[in-house]
Amino acid sequence: MRVPGYTEIRELGHGGAGRVMLAVRDTDRLPVAVKHLSDPDLIERFRAEAVLIAGLDSPHIARLMEYAEDDEGAAIVMELVDGVTLRHLLAHEGATGPEAALLILRARCSAWPRRTRRASCTATSSPRT
Q1: Dist CA 34 CA 25 (whole Å)
Q2: Interatomic CA distance for residues 6 and 35, integer angstroms
Q3: What are phi and psi of 107, to 5 degrees?
Q4: Fewest beta carbons within 10 Å, which of 21, 60, 83, 101?
Q5: What distance in Å separates the CA atoms of residue 66 and residue 78, rounded to the nearest whole number?
Q6: Edge-to-edge strands of the sheet including 18-25?
Q7: 72 CB-contact burial (10 Å; exposed 0-12 / middle 13-18 / buried 19+)
Q8: d(Cα 117, Cα 123) in Å, to the nearest integer?
Q9: What is the largest distance, in Å, between two alpha-carbon atoms of the chain?
Q10: Contacts of 57 (CB under 8 A, 6+ apart)
Q11: How crowded is residue 37: how many other Cβ atoms within 10 Å of its Cβ?
């Protein structure tokens, strides 16, 4: 699906449930990430993820800018986080030590409110996106 108001540039990553695209907002050329859902069976979960992210304010989670849904699918427009993925870092630098691994895990999980932490600390902060 095309998200009105955004122009997609290239793919940043993909997985079983969809893909993430680099895009720019047409009004001001702000770079963003657009997460597209490819599995229609997951639409309710995807919608719930957007609602959850919209309520979070953390430097460890990309801010939700917009949610779009139509007959072709759904997309979450998020703040673009510039950098390399954890997967890339591990592939090129090798395994981290225990201290570095705990810092990454702590940052990812501390972003989620206590009430949602148990179920969600790896959802949208995925290293693929």
Answers
A1: 10
A2: 12
A3: -65, -45
A4: 83
A5: 7
A6: 6-15, 18-25, 31-37, 73-79, 64-70
A7: exposed
A8: 10
A9: 46
A10: 63
A11: 21
- Are 120 and 52 within 8 A, CB to CB? yes
Residue from 68, 79, 108 nearest 116 by CA: 108
Q: Would you give the DSSP letter of residue 123?
A: S
Tokens of 116: 């949602």
Profile the chain (129 residues) by mean pLDDT over runs of 10 residues.
Answer: 96 89 98 93 92 84 92 93 80 86 76 51 45
User: To which residue do tokens 């993925």 refer?
Assistant: 85
Sheet strands (E) in 17-101: 18-25, 31-37, 64-70, 73-79
The reported pTM is: 0.74
The two three-digit tokens of residue 65, written as one number: 């800018």
**What is the enclosing helix (H) or strand (E) of 9?**
strand 6-15
In angstroms, the CA 11 to CA 9 distance is 7
Residue linked to tokens 């090129």: 92
Q: Identify the H or E element spanning 14.
A: strand 6-15
